[in-house]
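Pilot study result, target chain (152 residues):
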Amino acid sequence: MSINKLVFASLVALAVSGCASEWFVTHNGNMPTNERISQLNVGQTKQEVRQILGSPSSVVSLDQNTWIYMSSDIKRVAFFKPEEISRDVLTIKFNKDDKVEDITRLKKENGREIVVSQDETPTLGQQPGFFEKYFGGVGQYMPFGPSRRSDI
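Predicted structure:
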């Protein structure tokens, strides 16, 4: 076998082995086990919930009484767009006395795709006028950087 065929075969083997999808599945988040979640009851305190489930993945910034535990599995293959395989979200809402008021669990199937708008909102005052556009940079452009000569 010639060296060219050997190099070609090894490159093909390397490329094919690099496309195995199980190598690119990542798990994100800290979702507690179903056993621990089943121990939750309405009326428990924040301290009791933290003892059972641990610290939340996120606390809603505008409402400190909503804790979120979440996890997801993302499949990434080479340069293709990442694909979310699974998602699990547990939301615990507390009342003003820091007692559990509501427990909600959602899966990926409960979610929906949100289309991001490509529209732009114009901001006023950001468009330069005629004089600023053509004469605003006079004296500011130095193509060779600041002069290092001390005799200037």
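One observation from the pilot: The CA atoms of residues 93 and 133 lie 54 Å apart. A full batch analysis is planned for the follow-on phase.
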